[in-house]
Design a protein that fits this description.
- The chain is mainly beta.
- 11% of the residues lie in helices and 35% in strands.
- It contains 11 helices and 45 strands.
- Strand 27 (454-459) and strand 28 form a beta hairpin.
- The longest helix has 11 residues, at 8-18.
- It starts with 7 loop residues before the first helix and ends with a strand.
- The model is unreliable at 1-17, 380-393, 448-452, 530-537 and 707-737 (pLDDT under 50).
Length: 737
């Protein structure tokens, strides 16, 4: 709330503290990834959240597998259910299909004929990597970066490619240029007895860890143990022998897959094609990228599941399964013998789920795991600022609204300055009505502290309030309502209006006073009644109830000259001119029984509405029309007894009539009616004390002008201090003089 004693900065800081961190995470988990980058600059904690693996994994748009066929690309989400979506590779002019797919941590490497693409599918960004045109067999095989402890979006990324002459030749390219460089590669560190042997790649699909790329390799297919070799992008050198693996391959249909485990280690999955037994090893410690001598493998899990399929479909298939380990789950993707992809979820040696991906039509898709990343591909033609603008435009407005409906009201004010459209949204009644924390009734019971000498102006949705001090010279003065000067209503924002209160006390007749919110001084009104029925000018006007209704800054009360009047009427107070209209307009009915709630003795409910908008300066054109008449069997009376001053509270929402009233024992109920039927009837058992005061309330983001009060003090006072004196008659006297 925009308190006059607080700066906007102080209010924003206060509201930020009020917003639970768990809720911030929940809200941001609904924001499309392409737009999350806009929020990185909010504060250091928000920026850190964007690098939090747990947050990214729990994001509602997260997917964990990518599959590509000759014509289409798909993502596969695992939680809360397996969901397949079609993706588009964001590279203009892509014609050839992807022949080589590698998960390189932040990015995917998509190899095609004579070209490759570096792609962030979560962020929907990509860039071309042109292969060496002088070498027709050139192929991009991996992505890494210079490991200098910089932020991900500040790292110096490079690609590595190879081509064949009479042996494999290697070359690198910096993302900042399109020039391929021969680094004159010299293998370092390894088993000297193997120094003259050529290492053979088991697969060209490497694994990226801390900027380096690692491949499974062997010297001979009959080797008992395969090993890892790696390329260090910082020194641009190969480790021809980094470390041994805990196993080798003894059949071409065995599965053997290397993955990153917990962000800083390796895992290795092997399946025996005969027994279908799966063994998973993980490295005991974090990987030291400069030295593989301390790598120790340990068995993480051994799975023997009856009827579990083979993960390599046939002897000639080059497709290894893709997998990741998530807590206690093992999730795999592989193709069956007909080439159709499946997702398998295994937990505690049991096959929990087995789902065929029927949305992937073409057989034998390429596939790999993918962990979401917010690192831009950094196309040299785009700046970070341009990326942010592009992303802002791509956030669907409906989703903006949905996200903001989860933000606590006290924090919404922080986002008013984002743009004009957001500011307008917070004045949109439909948005506020659909907000997840909206409430429509307020009930107040007796509190431990009770005062009649002061009142509170309260915005319960924003949890802000201020005292309205009564006139100490008049102990019987009560605050009756709030309004504002509406001379410039069409031009001023709600929080810029000049708010006032009106109060009255009884002398030999009712005396009225006003107080501006900008001060605590009460001012006597030299009231002159304007406009009315001349035949009533000398007649005393009685208020049917002190609870008025505010509209466009003015207050309106139901009144009568005599309780037997067939028609009651409205009087109103104009805060701009500080004058009463002793007779604003007639109502379409009167009261003929003290237990009527402007409701007939038959329990029949009639609702009238004014045909046109109310002109606050003139009630002569007010026309009432019947909106709804309801006759519902066994419907209760809304005024509990003849001596009760409590009228029902209600609002009309589309086709519903929603009401709150007390039964004859004083317990409150909510009634929902639709099309002449009682849809719902709920007793509010949480309201313990009987005979609560109640009213409707429509949430508002309008600040309470003036000084704030302590929240603890508000909890003690607010319910009792706004409660009218139950011993005072509901009808008060206004004589119009």
């Amino acid at each position: 709330m925009m308190d006059s004693t607080k700066t906007k900065k102080a209010i924003a800081a206060h509201d930020q503290e009020e917003l639970p961190w768990e809720m911030i995470e929940e809200i941001l988990s609904h924001v499309p990834p392409i737009s999350l980058v806009r929020f990185r600059t909010v504060c250091k904690r928000w920026n850190a959240l964007h690098n939090d693996k747990t947050f990214l994994n729990n994001h509602k748009f997260t997917f964990r597998f990518i599959l590509t066929t000759k014509s289409k690309i798909y993502s596969v989400s695992i939680d809360p259910k397996i969901l397949v979506r079609e993706l588009t590779l964001e590279v203009p002019g892509t014609e050839s299909h992807i022949k080589h797919l590698v998960d390189c941590n932040e990015f995917l490497l998509c190899g095609m004929d004579k070209v490759a693409a570096v792609w962030n599918p979560w962020f929907k960004q990509s860039r071309w990597i042109k292969v060496n045109a002088s070498q027709p067999s050139s192929q991009v095989v991996g992505i890494g970066y210079v490991n200098n402890n910089m932020r991900a979006d500040e790292k110096r990324y490079k690609t590595i490619g190879s081509y064949w002459t009479d042996h494999s030749e290697w070359e690198t390219q910096d993302f900042s240029s399109e020039v391929w460089k021969d680094p004159k590669l010299t293998p370092i560190q390894g088993d000297k007895s193997l120094k003259d042997k050529a290492a053979i790649f088991f697969t060209k699909c490497g694994v990226s860890l801390h900027g380096n790329v690692y491949w499974i390799a062997f010297y001979d297919k009959t080797d008992t143990l395969y090993h890892l070799l790696n390329f260090d992008f910082s020194s641009e050198r190969f480790y021809a022998y980094f470390c041994d693996l805990p196993c080798g391959m003894n059949h071409p249909r065995n599965a053997l897959v290397l993955r990153v485990f917990r962000g800083d280690r390796f895992s290795l999955l092997k399946q025996c094609y005969k027994t279908k037994k799966i063994e998973i090893w993980v490295t005991k410690n974090k990987i030291n990228v400069e030295d593989g001598n301390d790598v120790v493998w340990m068995n993480f899990r051994t799975l023997s599941i009856p009827n579990f399929p083979g993960l390599v479909s046939n002897e000639y298939s080059s497709s290894q399964p893709s997998y990741f380990i998530d807590d206690k789950r093992l999730v795999l993707c592989s193709c069956d013998e007909t080439g159709h992809p499946w997702i398998y979820v295994v937990e505690e040696n049991k096959l929990i789920s087995k789902v065929q991906l029927n949305d992937v039509f073409d057989p034998w898709p390429l596939h790999c795991t993918y962990f979401p990343s917010l690192v831009p591909t950094m196309d040299s033609t785009k700046t970070i600022k341009e990326i942010g603008v592009q992303d802002q435009e791509q956030l669907p407005w409906e989703l903006v609204e949905e996200i903001l409906t989860h933000v606590p009201p006290i924090s919404l004010v922080r986002f008013r300055t984002v743009c004009k459209r957001w500011d307008d949204l917070f004045n949109d009644k439909t948005f506020i009505d659909n907000h997840k924390l909206t409430f429509r009734f307020i009930l107040a019971t007796k509190s431990k502290i009770y005062s009649k000498k002061e009142a509170v102006v309260w915005n319960p949705w924003l949890k802000q309030s201020r005292w309205i001090k009564a006139d100490v010279s008049q102990s019987s003065l009560e605050v009756d309502g709030i309004g504002y000067d509406n001379n410039n209503d069409n031009k001023m924002r709600a929080e810029e209006r000049r708010y006032k209160t009106i109060g009255s006390y009884l002398k030999n007749h009712s005396v009225w006073k006003t107080q501006d919110f900008s001060c605590d001084v009460w001012k006597d009104l030299k009231l002159k009644a304007r406009r009315g029925d001349k035949s009533l000018k000398d007649t005393v006007t009685n208020l049917f109830t002190r609870c008025g209704v505010s509209l466009h800054g003015n207050l309106y009360w139901i009144a009568f000259c005599d309780k037997t009047d067939l028609l009651y009427h409205l009087i109103n107070f104009d805060f701009s001119s500080e004058r009463f209209y002793t007779f604003f307009c007639d109502l379409p009915c009167g009261m003929n029984h003290p237990r009527n709630a402007l409701v007939l003795p038959t329990k029949k409910i009639e609702i009238w509405v004014t045909k046109n908008k109310i002109n606050v300066e003139d009630g002569a054109d007010v026309v009432w029309m019947n909106f709804r008449t309801l006759s519902i069997p066994n419907f209760p009376g809304l005024v509990s007894n003849e001596y009760s001053s409590s009228q029902p509270s209600y609002f009309i929402d589309d086709k519903r009539l929603v009401m709150c009233s007390c039964d004859e024992t004083g317990h409150p109920w909510i009634y929902i009616l639709k099309e002449n039927k009682l849809i719902s009837k709920v007793k509010l058992n949480s309201v313990v004390d009987p005979w609560p005061v109640h009213c409707t309330y429509f949430p508002s983001l309008v600040p309470v002008p003036g000084s704030p009060i302590e929240e603890a003090l508000l909890q003690c006072w607010v319910c009792g201090s706004i409660r009218p004196d139950p011993l005072r008659p509901a009808a008060d006297v206004f004589d119009g003089h």
